[in-house]
Amino acid sequence: MINKLLIANRGEIACRVIKTANALGVKTVAVYSDADANARHVAMADEAVYLGASPSKESYLRGELIIEKAKQLGVDAIHPGYGFLSENADFAKLCAENDIIFVGPPASAIEAMGSKSAAKHIMEKAGVPLVPGYHGDEQDEAVLKAAADDMGYPVLLKAAAGGGGKGMRQVWSEKEFSQALSAAKRESMASFGDDHMLVEKYLTRPRHVEIQVFCDTLGNGVYLFERDCSVQRRHQKIIEEAPAPNMSESIRKQMGEAAILAAKAINYVGAGTVEFLLDEDGSFYFMEMNTRLQVEHPVTEMITREDLVQWQLTIAEGKPIPKQQDELTLTGHAFEARIYAEDPNNEFLPSTGTLHLLQPPTESDVVRVDTGVEQGDEVSVFYDPMIAKLVVWGESREVALKRLLHALDNYHIEGVSTNIDFLKRVASNEAFVNAELTTTFVEKHHDALFAASQPSAQYLGVTLPAMALLALSHRNALRTKANDQVDKHLPVWHSAGAWRANSYHNETLSLIIDDEQFDIVVKHTQTVGGKTWQVTIGEQTHNIAGGLIQSDDGSTLLSAIIDDYKSVYQFAEQDGQYTLFNHDTHARFAVVQPSLGDDSDTNHDANFNAPMNGTIVALLVEPGQKVEKGQPILIMEAMKMEHSIVAPQDGMVESFYFNAGELVDGGATLLSFVPESADADKKDA
Ligand code: MV4
Q1: What is the pLDDT of residues 581-594, one digit of tens each?
Q2: How far is the CA of 190 from the centre of ligand 1 (A)?
Q3: Whose C-alpha in 149, 212, 473, 597 is 20 to 30 A from the C-alpha of 651?
Q4: pTM to 2 decimals?
């Protein structure tokens, strides 16, 4: 009986395992490194034990230390998750030697699948279909070349010690063979210390279809259907789905039974995945077997409604698998999108930083977010930069895909670059929507997936104006707050917060979006009861109104009326970098701050215009008189309220264009102002 489980892992999988353990009333022990001292999985566990420094070799890979801690804490079983020690036969042995249940297969099964060529020999004997090819011990060039000539080109040279696509080389014709073999051997020796080669018929447009299998210690084995993981980039899975689209019941059954054959061939126990290449003609071939619970197991959980970690624990306790084959059902369709802190525009290199904003879509029984991080966490350089797995289910592939896109639209992350926009492009790509899936998908649709999207009409007509509104509203809010500080020293008649001339005048608001500057001409217009502007962007002019509002949960939102379209946006601002978002908008920008002494600061650009019709009440300084930043320089009455223009910075009023008592129209320029630096330049000129 497993009463206390140690999870020898971190991140989302550790959290996910703890979740099931909690549901089963199993006590949990987390392990952590320096970098993970405050991590979510540590907080979720009943107990936690420190392993060492952040690098995996000094913490999560320290099998003996983990065993020692497990024994000290009276742990019954260890769940290895995936990666780290999950396919380390020595660690599995160490558990067994210390009477600690390893929630996984026997060490012998891990070892059997450790070598690609050994695995193929075992599968061949078991009658599992293999790609036509040669995987013998004879490694003379003549032998390998004869095999290639026999099967016909193209062929694929594969490093027997390789995996995950490393050490593979396509050979398209006989004359290329010799050179390609030499190169492949060199590469394999350099990477794996072994240059043993397999030669296979190269399938040019296969799909990667894998079967989830479960075997117990009593000789039972079932398959929980298949997952299609063809959409990969450099052997990194991007979006996985279950079931495989357009999979016939017959091929599903054949593949499932072949997978069980493979598992039985190595006396498998626990959760395993048998990977196949599925060719266009429906033939399928064993690729490799993974002796761990896969990252993408949630899509199988969604369509079978089974908890695979619960199955693992049940089997680890020596009990039979919870269901027989004919009791397993396949319902609907599920997708998993891996949310990564990486930059698709920079070779998908990991993006590290602080998750200033981490707002996943709302979870439900059809939307699941498996994550190991929380808002404010650092995405560190030490580990895989996965932020979460977004898993959705639908009655059909079409419904599931719509939900995936909607969930991605509602996944808001700031502080690191993410692959969310890339995932949206994949999920909305026509070939993907039509389930035209092969392992060459990303390569084949590269331009569409990596093209910088052209601004849409919605973007130009709504999002950009809304960005301008956010910039103006947020600046006013900051100024009002600042003025409140200034106002404390001003006479009581000063009301409603001062307004700085340069927030009520025609101005050019410059936004930086994706390293491109957008100059937006802002004209202050007027209406009853609210701030309004007219913004001109290129050829288009829009009337915008609205501002910052408080939502019920106390967060500040932007209520925007753009022409005749009203919407409410959430936003994040960090050091002048803004993100504006709602269900279908996600826009990031920065505001170009006018620098002191910048030309645009001098009066001839940034006019000091009356925000609305009104009367000049008083001119508070003489033209040419030095004024300090924040010093009131003019008072006017508008809408039954007195407002004062305060000097935006040290400088002087060059001239007033109206006298006290005169009526002014909204938008009229009231004065010209020269900042001190420009003033000094003027004097020197
Ligand atoms: C293949 C193949 C085509 N023909 N073998 C990639 C890594 C390893 N899992 C085996 N892989 C492949 N083996 C033959 N005979 C194409 C691939 C392959 C691939 C397979 C599954 C998922 C993604 C892939 C990406 C590139 C190549």
Answers
A1: 988 788 989 988 65
A2: 21
A3: 473
A4: 0.80
